[in-house]
Amino acid sequence: MKKLLVSLHLLFLIPNIVLGEIVEIYSLNQMDDDRGFCIDIRGHKSKAKVNRGLQAHTCYSYQGEVAVDQGFDTSKLMENQFHLPAFDVCMEAASVTASTSLQLNKCRDGQLQRFEWDKEGRIHLIDDENLCLTVAQGESRKGGGGSPVHLIRNLSMETCSDTLKRFQRWGMRTVD
């Protein structure tokens, strides 16, 4: 029942999203980049390095498409998995502790790969609703490309809180 409610919530929250479509997952807080920050594999697009984990990076959608290293499968999102089909890997918390990093591994039904959105737009581990996907505060660091240059921030699982709420709220979108 809970899975159905989350699925319905996502469909009403983002009504233009079609199951099986590729979407980018972006922070609702643009911080210091008007293009926004998306969940991204470290590295560059098709040459991204899945063994280096995930980061928050300037969204590539301003270029007219969802990039392969930022593209998630909506049908897997409805199953509580954050699957990047171009690399056939899923987002995974390194552990169920605060400040843990996010890595990528072969998709399986393990507790560290089971995430869900709450009604406030936070993404948290199903096994610990108190740990939310969080973009690092402070200044962004410069990436290696883009005009203007792309910006990067770290991602981690942190205790869900009102203090960090602006760094813990997420949405998903396609490119129009």
Task: Walk me through what this model shows.
The chain is mainly beta and 176 residues long. It has a single domain (2-173), classed as Trefoil (Acidic Fibroblast Growth Factor, subunit A). The protein contains two helices and 14 strands, in the order αββββαββββββββββ. The chain has a four-stranded antiparallel sheet with strand order 2-3-12-11, with no helix packed on it. A hairpin with a 4-residue loop joins strand 5 (83-84) and strand 6. The chain is globular. The protein starts with a helix and ends with a strand. The model is unreliable at 1-16 (pLDDT under 50).
Give a short summary of the structure:
The protein is mainly β. It contains two helices and 14 strands.
Protein structure class: mainly beta
User: Which architecture does the CATH hierarchy give at level 2?
Assistant: Trefoil
Strand order of the biggest β-sheet: 2-3-12-11
Sheet-strand content, in percent, reads: 25-35%
Task: Itemize the secondary structure elements and their pairings.
Elements: H1 2-13, E1 22-27, E2 37-41, E3 54-58, E4 72-73, H2 74-77, E5 83-84, E6 89-93, E7 102-105, E8 115-117, E9 123-125, E10 128-135, E11 141-142, E12 151-153, E13 155-159, E14 170-173
Antiparallel strand pairs: 1-4, 1-14, 2-3, 3-12, 5-6, 6-7, 8-9, 9-10, 10-13, 11-12
